[in-house]
Amino acid sequence: MQFKWRIPHPIQKFMTWLGSHELATLILVGIVAAGIWGFVELADEVREGESERFDRTVLLSMRHSDDVSDPLGPHWVEETARDITALGGMVILTFLTIGVAGFLMLQGKRTEAVFLVAAVVGGMLLSTGLKYFFDRPRPDLVPHGQYVYTRSFPSGHSALSAVVYLTLGALLARVQKQNRIKAYFLLLAFFLTILVGLSRVYLGVHWPTDVLAGWAMGATWAAGCWLVFRWLQRTSPAIENPDDAVPEGEGQVA
Asked: Which domain holds residue 125?
């Protein structure tokens, strides 16, 4: 009796979905691969001390040469940086995630809400674990413009803002039908993520490579979650797929 091995049905469905969405899938897989590679390269340079010159140069470029305790620009710029950096804080991101999840629940999109919470919590746990693993000290070149109590690499604010804002942007864009609304959510998420990361270096609480690594980690996680969500959207009847909607004016009897 000859034994025939068959590919499990869920794997067959996933492979079929991959084959029918080559471009979008290829882009997302490329982002994940590039993000992992970028994070590994940054971590390697940091552990070997090769990033020290770059970190010092960029950090000091945001300070007055005659007084490194004073960031460039008037005092209101520093206050604005503190407001911006708060957008990447754990409390703000937690409230934002709960708020959006509640909104999705009220719309009857329970699966999307659960997926969002799982993606954000998973990203937060990953970011925290990486901080403890690398155990890099905070910058000591300049006074910190904000109280800090964790280690430096990767930047938690940068990583978590990328995880939350990019995941939210991708999720909200995916359930929209109009391309301009999709683009709006994605661009807004990207803009907020960049601003939060830059504010961390400006306030002197992170090395630039901390922020770059945080962006890489967060973007990789968000892209991976987006890839999984697109697959679930195609294969699960519990999740609404705007791609399946019939365009206005089509399929209607006059």
From this structure: 27-63+71-238
